[in-house]
């Protein structure tokens, strides 16, 4: 049924049934180099045009703007001693119980650079840096355990309009055996490029670079908290060390200011992974894990968190402990 | 006790002749030092000094110099790593026989009661004839930890085999690592302080500011009256110039309590904060001990017998995912304890519920009166019942006395045993008491005592 089922059959360069060509990489690239490439990349040189305000406007056929390509890395050895050390450090940072099972958030940090590499292609229609991570959805069909040798595939799909620009899904599929039909782990990361207009879509409701602050932010009614996260200024640096995501907006106030933030912000995936860790006992071996991000958490900061059962699922949300501004919400659903 | 199930293929073994019958464990008496607000009279006293003082007072009170007791059991919640044998070291510093064994035990605020349960059970099983249970805590002399970064560097350097490796370890040190970590009362899994947790429970149960202040005032008035009546004369030994708990306010009033500003639950959406410094227990230093024995051991030494330790039940709740309030575990323990002993809340002459916060007592009482809670959470057919306020914390509790975490259990057990002894002497009839203590980690310990 799924695209990746078809995609995996393309063992050699050549178009799959979705018309994507598999490009096999020798190893998972480092995010640092990718960010450098993202900065250096000639900005949107493939885009058909720009408005007078500097916002980008696509011509007809936005979907075809995504290059028909999927990236693949095979032989990612999770039994590697350095990787085990990193797993232990990751578990400590996000509060996962020490275990040989890779938490879904750790699989994400291992695999996602493959998707990031796609975004640094010269022909990727949106700029890597400055993109906003809107949401993330992961399905864990089977646990990935230390010692598994992983095959990672990533591609972009569903370039579509958003009220503030254009959004796109980066799909990452992780198999513990390349012959498996369905991946053990599948993640969809939704990113927004602000100020980009797709064909047939209304103009973005706010100019490029603006901050999206719904006026009613602080008046949102939250449930009673079940926890409080006191996040110190080094929170971003600690998660950067275990995730490899050293995007300057997370590292220090100085480096974040260069990108328009008053202070460093947490990695969205840190907050989601910490919420997931809080449900380690409840989620079981196979689960769905979602998050959508609202306002970023400025560091240092205090986040009030609520986690509660909702039918078969656990839902969680986090908001500014003082002002009530929503930061994130999501769910963890055990797969019965 | 329910009859043991047997199957035809495995006949019930004959009762062992070496199996002793369970006998009574009785409370002979207790001794504590006055409790002091953190940073006051016991500013420079250590846990070991305070526990040794409380223990030595107990030894003096009951003439135990040179006695080899079965065991001394106790602990501290905030403990230095060097105090790994805190209670044994205290025994060695006392005039008990040095051949008296000891061990440390810790169950947050339930430490003292859990130690009492442990000592009583060994006595009941005939494994020992006497024992001391207790606890001590100091916030003033609390351990301060080095940062996680510095700790890892120090450990790595210690394990390094070469100077070069040691230097490499120290090279990882960052300026921020030099910041010390004083102890916090935050729950590790939620990051919320105990007060914030209780503020959430208070909001859920709609406990009013007025009800909390009234309970706090009653605690001060009851404790003051008990001191005036000389109730504590044989329960408390002066220490470092203090002869009474210095948190006790004899001049407190509802008007004064009403003026205090809320300190917890100030940012809970849609709720009115109600928990103040007046209706919450302050951080406190102190130590307490209780002497337990078999009836024979006490009789041989012509020692008094105040009460019998009947039974105990502990419980825990999942507060991490908000399923229950952090301090609500006793609400679950007590119904199980009552059911096992065929008792109801109305069968008690005294009910002692540790006042971590006034609202902790009030939410537990409200839960037991709540039909939905008792049916859905406790699995009962009807509400557990109402506690008559005239039997609740009649000589004051932690709001007035203070709450040196591990020392509270010993304070309550000793005072309650004496109350039972007095009541039975007055009325000529047996008296019974229920003790309930909530603790960090969603824990709760409860017990039943009866006049001996």
Automatic annotation (TrEMBL), chain A:
<dbReference type="GO" id="GO:0005835">
    <property type="term" value="C:fatty acid synthase complex"/>
</dbReference>
<dbReference type="InterPro" id="IPR029069">
    <property type="entry name" value="HotDog_dom_sf"/>
</dbReference>
<dbReference type="Pfam" id="PF01575">
    <property type="entry name" value="MaoC_dehydratas"/>
</dbReference>
<dbReference type="InterPro" id="IPR003965">
    <property type="entry name" value="Fatty_acid_synthase"/>
</dbReference>
<dbReference type="InterPro" id="IPR002539">
    <property type="entry name" value="MaoC-like_dom"/>
</dbReference>
<protein>
    <recommendedName>
        <fullName>MaoC-like domain-containing protein</fullName>
    </recommendedName>
</protein>
<feature type="region of interest" description="Disordered">
    <location>
        <begin position="196"/>
        <end position="225"/>
    </location>
</feature>
<feature type="domain" description="MaoC-like">
    <location>
        <begin position="232"/>
        <end position="308"/>
    </location>
</feature>
<comment type="similarity">
    <text>Belongs to the enoyl-CoA hydratase/isomerase family.</text>
</comment>
<dbReference type="GO" id="GO:0006633">
    <property type="term" value="P:fatty acid biosynthetic process"/>
</dbReference>
<dbReference type="GO" id="GO:0004312">
    <property type="term" value="F:fatty acid synthase activity"/>
</dbReference>
TrEMBL record, chain B:
<keyword id="KW-0012">Acyltransferase</keyword>
<dbReference type="InterPro" id="IPR020616">
    <property type="entry name" value="Thiolase_N"/>
</dbReference>
<feature type="active site" description="Proton acceptor">
    <location>
        <position position="403"/>
    </location>
</feature>
<dbReference type="InterPro" id="IPR002155">
    <property type="entry name" value="Thiolase"/>
</dbReference>
<dbReference type="InterPro" id="IPR020617">
    <property type="entry name" value="Thiolase_C"/>
</dbReference>
<keyword id="KW-0808">Transferase</keyword>
<dbReference type="InterPro" id="IPR050521">
    <property type="entry name" value="3-ketoacyl-CoA_Thiolase"/>
</dbReference>
<dbReference type="Pfam" id="PF00108">
    <property type="entry name" value="Thiolase_N"/>
</dbReference>
<comment type="similarity">
    <text>Belongs to the thiolase-like superfamily. Thiolase family.</text>
</comment>
<feature type="active site" description="Acyl-thioester intermediate">
    <location>
        <position position="109"/>
    </location>
</feature>
<feature type="region of interest" description="Disordered">
    <location>
        <begin position="1"/>
        <end position="20"/>
    </location>
</feature>
<dbReference type="Pfam" id="PF02803">
    <property type="entry name" value="Thiolase_C"/>
</dbReference>
<feature type="domain" description="Thiolase N-terminal">
    <location>
        <begin position="26"/>
        <end position="295"/>
    </location>
</feature>
<dbReference type="GO" id="GO:0005829">
    <property type="term" value="C:cytosol"/>
</dbReference>
<feature type="domain" description="Thiolase C-terminal">
    <location>
        <begin position="304"/>
        <end position="450"/>
    </location>
</feature>
<protein>
    <submittedName>
        <fullName>Acetyl-CoA C-acetyltransferase</fullName>
        <ecNumber>2.3.1.9</ecNumber>
    </submittedName>
</protein>
<feature type="active site" description="Proton acceptor">
    <location>
        <position position="438"/>
    </location>
</feature>
<dbReference type="InterPro" id="IPR016039">
    <property type="entry name" value="Thiolase-like"/>
</dbReference>
<dbReference type="GO" id="GO:0003985">
    <property type="term" value="F:acetyl-CoA C-acetyltransferase activity"/>
</dbReference>
